[in-house]
Amino acid sequence: MHEETVYDALTNAHDDAGHWAFGTGFDDPLAGVDTTVPDGVDPADLGAYCLMLGDDALVLAQRLTQWITAAPELEEEVAIGNTGLDLLGQARLLLARAGSVGVLGRSRSRATESIPDEDALAYFRDADEFRSTGLVEAENGDFGQTMVRLFVASTVRLAVFARLRDSRDPVLAAIAAKGVHELAYHRDHAARWVLRLGDGTPESHRRAQAGVDAVWPHLADLFTATDVESRLAAGGVAVDPADVRAEVRDVLTTVLERATLRVPEWPADAPPRGRTGEHGPERTGLLEGLQGLAREHPAATW
């Protein structure tokens, strides 16, 4: 019988098919989708690119969950949780796509061989195997900084996903087509908070400006393409991040100015360290929270 809800899935596991990230008994997220790699595309490149996009979503979702029970309003707590769930759904699809072309974390052991690819990639890779950016990995800061970071991250991601709808990879195109609607909401919601805080009381304005100043340096490496991105963009599969820079800059500038916030000087381009596996110390604590339980009980099922 088809399992329609998460609660059914958690209580009606079949053949011990446990999923750490998404509960037990869920179908393959790419079931029924043609996962054939397009002609002329290196599967390793495609997998690496899916990790970049998937890791950004997974890590930002984890950061947002840190606000649960701590948000300033109950309604906002629900909104933050829903945003995190949207990103987790995107992460699941993207990590599943990476797994479908053969990407595995080198930490994967015999004890985790039966764990679905998206769960193995989320929970059993080491820090240097993640390809997320410093923007999503950074500490939350206060609520104002969190909303500024969410506004910046969703603006960048929305611009990329809007273009990925035309990707030659049908899986990426389908993920992007669904994701743009979610990301448009994320961007709008965060932008409204930036406007409310920036053009609010002196204290909210001060905190919002401090959030902008803290987040802005993380823009430095967002628009520098890796070799993987350059090759896939040339083949019509990926998006060169430099191609979204002007759009992102216009959106960020417009909203910050309307919020009466000072727009910092645009940072100089820097190498994409996070995309190549270089991460700061904040990554360690983040992974401990994300992976701790799964690593403690790698063969467990819900």
Automatic annotation (TrEMBL):
One GO location term (cellular component): cytosol
Superkingdom assignment: Bacteria
Chain segments carrying region Disordered: 265-302
InterPro entries for this protein: Aromatic_CoA_ox/epox (IPR052703), Ferritin-like (IPR012347), Ferritin-like_SF (IPR009078), PaaA_PaaC (IPR007814), PaaC (IPR011882)
Gene Ontology biological process terms from the UniProt entry: phenylacetate catabolic process
The protein's name in its UniProt record: Ring-1,2-phenylacetyl-CoA epoxidase subunit PaaC
Native species: Geodermatophilus amargosae
